[in-house]
Specification:
The chain is of the alpha+beta class. Helices cover about 25% and strands about 35% of the residues. It has 3 helices and 8 strands. Strands 1, 2, 3, 4, 5, 6, 7 and 8 form an 8-stranded antiparallel β-sheet that branches. The two termini are about 15 Å apart. It binds D-MYO-inositol-1,4,5-triphosphate. D-MYO-inositol-1,4,5-triphosphate binds near residues 31, 34 and 83.
Length: about 130
């Protein structure tokens, strides 16, 4: 089916808990503020929620994330020198917003890395 079909746009690819901090806004560096966040990866967006119950109830028509980022043109890599923590994902939007996403579980971090990268790659090919 087409990538523009409602099914694809509204499909939750992945959801779960990660530690998150924003490190740049529009290319300007921010002070880190690590906090637990619930993530929902759906359609072209990665959405962040504070409350897991709200995240679990995600539907396209009732989406009120704390914040949301467009994955089109985004970049993802492993943050090697940006944190003292392990398994840290470095994620950059096309508008110059940057985030670190982290789990103590290597498996959890790997799964998120692959899932986000998969969506970015799909959008690159459109
Ligand atoms: C920061 C805090 C962060 C740490 C950051 C510190 O201090 O300890 O957890 O990032 O390191 O500056 P503060 O609480 O005073 O803001 P990591 O845990 O990711 O290493 P950094 O400045 O080297 O990025």
């Amino acid at each position: 089916s087409s990538s523009h079909s409602p099914d694809r746009l509204h499909m939750v690819e992945k959801s779960g808990q990660l530690n998150k901090t924003k490190i740049a806004e529009g290319g300007r560096k921010l002070r880190k503020c690590w906090a637990s966040s619930w993530l929902v990866l759906a359609g072209n967006s990665l959405m962040f929620y504070k409350d897991p119950k709200v995240a679990a109830a995600w539907t396209p028509s009732r989406s009120r994330p704390e914040s949301s980022v467009d994955l089109r043109g985004a970049r993802i890599d492993w943050a090697r020198d940006l944190s003292s923590k392990r398994n840290v994902i470095h994620f950059r939007t096309v508008t110059g917003n940057e985030y670190l996403l982290q789990s103590d579980s290597e498996t959890v971090s790997q799964e998120w890395y692959q899932a986000i990268k998969g969506v970015i790659r799909r959008l690159d090919e459109e």
